[in-house]
Design a protein that fits this description.
- The structure is a single chain.
- The longest helix has 14 residues, at 163-176.
- The protein has 2 domains: 4-217, Rossmann fold; 222-286, no CATH class.
- The protein contains 11 helices and 15 strands.
- The protein has a 6-stranded mixed β-sheet with strand order 6-7-8-3-9-10, sandwiched between helices.
- It has helices spanning 43-50, 73-76, 94-102, 110-119, 133-144, 163-176, 191-197, 215-221, 229-234, 257-263, 274-283, and strands at 4-15, 18-28, 32-36, 58-63, 66-67, 79-83, 151-155, 183-187, 200-205, 208-214, 223-227, 242-245, 250-254, 268-271, 285-286.
- By secondary structure, the protein is of the alpha/beta class.
- The chain starts with a strand and ends with a strand.
Length: 287
Amino acid sequence: MKENALDVYGLTKRYPNFLLNEVSFSVPRGTIVGLIGENGAGKSTTINAILNLIKKDAGQIEILGEKEQEIDFDTRNRIGIVFDKHNFPASMSPNNLGRLLETVYPLWDRNRYWELLKKLSLPTDRKIKKLSKGMKMKLAIAVALSHHSEILILDEATSGLDPIVRDDILDILLEFVQEENHSVLVSSHITTDLEKIADYIVFLHEGKVIFSKTKDELRYFYGIMKCSAAQFKKMDRADIVAYRKQDYEWQILVSNRNEAQRKYPNSIIDPATLDDIMLLFIKGESK
């Protein structure tokens, strides 16, 4: 079995006003990879290209050990897909939807589907159009998990949901990857969600991968250093990842806050959140 569930090499897609520029990253089996970036950074374009919903201009995609041009029907059935909007028939109930999908997916697991409906407290006989947004999202995830998916691909699946529903969904994703051959790629602008569950973070900005790192490296090593202009001028530029001038201080992103604290003992250095890191890269300047 291949070590990675998904490999993306040099993915490129050109639009008149946007370029997805040689995006490369991997999703190892048994892990959750979070795709972050501002609106318009290229997250949805990347996912649509991976799923062959749009035609890429260059690059190679390999999913579940198959190159995209070789992906057969059986392999596609092992991919669970959840978008922020679903296309289920609005007049159907979850009960009727399950019966329909049983004829669509060869590996449909009726018992698993009903277990998930119960676990997620979803009404089985209420029409889908009368379900709340959170319930519809839970239903989409129940469907994605009921045809023996090995990789889940979610695009802004928790957007607009209340914290309780989001937490339920995060628990489901964590439970899913307890099986070592299961993996998740999830794009989200809610970085606090990814801080809870992701093993790796891929940061896209203006169509390019800024970094692909483990969450633990970002959490335990990166920091935000605050200092005066005079202190900033004396800093070794090799210690600066990105920086931003505020009204009364400089904010500097450092990749090793303990080492930076040792070198600059008079400066304040706080742990960096994913939001902090994104803001420094997007609104600040690189060294």
